Amino acid sequence: MYLRQGTFSHLPELTDAEIGAQVRYALLNNWPVSIEYTDDPHPRNVYWEMWGLPLFDLDEPDGVLAEIDACRATFPRHYIRVAAYDASYGRQTTALSFLVQRPADEPGFRLARTDSDDRRQHYALHAYATDTRPGERYGGRAP
């Protein structure tokens, strides 16, 4: 299964040069950039772990790319995304978010149906990866 999540979810994987171009675009728009990672990519899991602090006051994407590489080296079997925030509305608004790394093997999700009263049916997604403890998912051990 191929997880579709973020701004460029239906495009092929971005190269490092393309990631750098998107980071440059965010920085030119004065959007601070942050790097986040998780091993539970459920669509409702919007609170990923943050890699360091948001990167403010950068003019060039080289600093962001170095932090992405450090996060990749530390968490080689996790999902890693870059998020850029726009504060022009007076609140923190996500302007851009995209994946920069995914595990080699993505086990997918199961659709669970529950029947309730009056013929109502409720559906929920269950990630197969969450059957394993955090930090050990996708064939790895906790760092």
CATH topology of the domain at 16-101: Ribulose 1,5 Bisphosphate Carboxylase/Oxygenase
Query: Which stretches are poorly predicted, pLDDT < 50 over at least 5 residues?
Result: none
The whole-number mean of residue pLDDT values reads 84
Largest sheet: 4 strands, antiparallel
DSSP summary, beta strand count: 6
How many angstroms does the end-to-end distance come to? 25 Å
Q: How big is the Rg?
A: 17 Å
**Helical element count?**
2
Query: What is the name of the CATH architecture of the domain at 16-101?
Result: 2-Layer Sandwich
Strand order of the largest sheet: 2-1-3-4
Can you walk through the features of this model?
- Heterohexadecamer of 8 large and 8 small subunits.
- Keywords: Calvin cycle, Carbon dioxide fixation.
- This protein is an alpha+beta fold.
- It has a domain at 16-101: Ribulose bisphosphate carboxylase, small subunit (Ribulose 1,5 Bisphosphate Carboxylase/Oxygenase), CATH 3.30.190.10.
- It has two helices and six strands, in the order αββαββββ.
- The chain has a four-stranded antiparallel beta sheet, covered by helices on one side. It has a two-stranded antiparallel ribbon with strand order 5-6.
- Strand 3 (79-86) and strand 4 (93-101) form a beta hairpin.
- It is globular, with a radius of gyration of 17 Å.
- The two termini are 25 Å apart.
